[in-house]
Design goal:
The complex is a heterodimer of chains A (about 280) and B (about 375). Chain A has 11 helices and 2 strands, in the order ααααββααααααα. With about 280 residues, chain A is mostly helical. Chain B has about 375 residues and is α/β, with parallel strands linked by helices. The chains are: A mainly alpha (about 280), B alpha/beta (about 375).
Amino acid sequence: MVALGLTLIYGVLNQINFAHADFVTVGAFTAFFTATRFATKVLGLPDTGGYLLSLVAALGAGAVLGFLVNAAVFAPLRSRGDELRPLIATIGVSVLLENGQLALFGPIPYQFDSPLARETLRFGRIFISAQSLLVVAVSVTAIAALYAFMRFTFLGKALRAVAQDRETAGLMGINPNLLIGLTIVIASALAGMAGALLGPVVVLTPFTGASLIVKAFAIVIIGGFGNMQGTIIAGLLVGVVEAFTVQYLGSGLIDLVAFALLLTMLAVRPTGLIAERKEENV
Amino acid sequence: MKRLGLAFLACVFSSLAQSQEIRIGVLMPISGPGSYFGVMGKEGIDLALEQLKGGVNGYHLQVQYEDSACSPLQATNAVKRVLDQFRPHIVIGEECSDASLAIAPILEQARVPQLNAGSVTMKLTESGYKYVFRIFPNAAQQSLPLAKVAYDRLGARTAVILYEKTNAGNDNADGFEKPFVAMGGKVLAKIDFGRDVNDFTAIATRIASLGKVDVLPTFALEGQQVRLAQALAQAKVVRGGGGNAVQMGSIWLPYGFDQKAGQAAEGYVRIVQFDPNEKRRIVQDFIKAFRAKYGADSVPTHINSHAYDTILLIAEAVRRGATDSESIRARFSTFKDVEVTTGRISFDPKGQNSDLSVVHFVETQKDLSWKGLDW
């Protein structure tokens, strides 16, 4: 889901969002405080209900943050017609968010326990936690919903039109800025929810997102920058390759194998698993 | 007129006395995954400085903090900056072994003592540096007792060693493996991982498939240890998850780890150097002062206390007549049985504290409290 948000923004804006990782962290912290403080202590919800509510809160927090950052930073810079400044601004937003969270939450790791992480399904020597199943289920649902939105709704079609040719889409009566904003909001919401799902799995600190983003970039490049289907397949591929690397080669070689795969893909098929078609004006 | 002259001289001497200071550079990770070291370390140092604000032997202890991020590159830049701008008489740090190793030759060349309170790598005090002093037990001092206890007390014959891929992790892993194998034990696997690894499910699955494992010595930072313990419990490998293996750890883990790991930590055996339950007066006074400054519910960790101790040791050197880098180094070299919160300090000729009198084993109980083990 982290990689999906990245590729969505690239597909529409042709721009890499370096702050995406920090949207994930914001989502994780939103979920943490919703689940452990608000839902259970204020609303009196049981642990599982509190955690599920925290997923929604993180989704909302990601969307609001995406909207605000786009309105305050990205949109004004884009309107000047410069492609470099918005790119650099994403780095600035990333540093700002990371250090803001460091000041707010401190560097000591938070213990974010999902009640589902305690439940484990076993198949012989293989086990899977209910939390991991939830991650898969929510990811599949979110991806399916996003696919349906992009494929079958008017807004989704308009969004794809903007991705293909911003100027022509504008001539057809579509407001590109509105749809770019919508893309950032959707991608940020996905990042926020990914943070809520990953919070109980990873070590939660203000730097959590930064540790995930490098792998997300690798997935996006392997899948084909800007292509959703390719990103999904690449995400699964990298996950399976990592699991087999741990089992048969050693966990210390995870990054080596993952990035060897990335370099091989760049050498053999630089467009990624599924190349994103771009119309060229001639 | 005479009276005025005397008053003038008194003012001059008074201001001279006040300007006498011992400058202490502090390199700690304030950002990155090891930044909890920096936060806790600063708490300990600030408390000690507050207690010594009147000065020692007419010297005021002046501190400058730098973020070295547990990283060799950032630590190198930070130490060069602090040497250039602050001109310290002594530098405290770093916490992480790789960063500590990176700054050691620079401080050696500058002839400024390095007082280390958190790195385990053997290389720090085995490389012939004359200005390095370490109060933290090194890898051999931590891993050898773990291997002995695993084999003799727990009756372990098989082990899987889990460690982060750093100098500290490597040295601790080797420090366990060699004596354990020499005693007749078998290491089924040595599994290393980078500091960016967050999900240990695949590693736990692999361990579950290795057959009967008696002990799992683990050397990693707190955040990874929490997730590792939980993944091993989910895989029913360790006692906290209903398995048979005992997870073992070193002084790396701060007090409070058990509460973060939850039930997965039950049965975890580890060595500690600072135990808040210890009855020594210096420990209880420290805890009292710590709570007065940081809140009645706060419990200091070994990181707080090690940092606190570094200032006490510098103050002791000044009390014994140290006035600059060379004399601090000379006084440190003569330290024997200097009492601090983490035990007694006696530096050997290599600068390593040789006193392990308060290092002992604890086991995490069902209610996540510690049970001291008389081993």
